[in-house]
Write a structure and sequence with these properties.
Layout (H helix, E strand, L loop, with lengths): L1 H20 L27 H35 L5 H35 L2
Helix pairs in contact: 2-3
Length: 125
């Protein structure tokens, strides 16, 4: 019985979204506020493929900074674990694995930065 009611709920949501989509007058375009049919597609900040590539590269650059920062912080955490291990083999092993993964994270961030700069040189004129 529970499955039946959950299925009915999902179908009700699906059909309610379709009724919103079909509420438009046939043949009339949906135009966002502040634009007209003549300026549709030219009012945004991304108007060329160069702008699109630049935005994507900026996003990848931001993610690379975040990954690099987290990798450096994890390296510092691994150093603290090494210092406070006091000869405990399990803590030293954990610190080594964290340090290894933080080094891999730093390498990934450096490769992402180089990928961004190479891609900008190739795609953006």
């Amino acid at each position: 019985m529970k499955k039946f009611f959950s299925l009915m709920l999902v179908l009700a949501f699906a059909f309610s979204f379709a009724s919103i989509a079909f509420a438009q007058i046939p043949g009339q375009a949906i135009i966002p506020g502040g634009t007209t049919a003549d300026t549709l597609g030219t009012s945004g900040s991304i108007t060329t493929t160069g702008d699109l590539v630049t935005k994507i590269m900026d996003l990848i650059n931001w993610v690379a900074w975040f990954v690099g920062l987290v990798a450096v912080l994890m390296g510092l955490y691994a150093g603290i674990l090494f210092i406070t291990a006091a000869g405990n083999a399990e803590s030293v092993t954990k610190a080594r694995s964290i340090l290894l993964f933080s080094i891999v994270g730093i390498a990934v961030a450096v490769m992402a930065f180089s990928l961004v700069s190479i891609s900008k040189a190739i795609f953006v004129l």
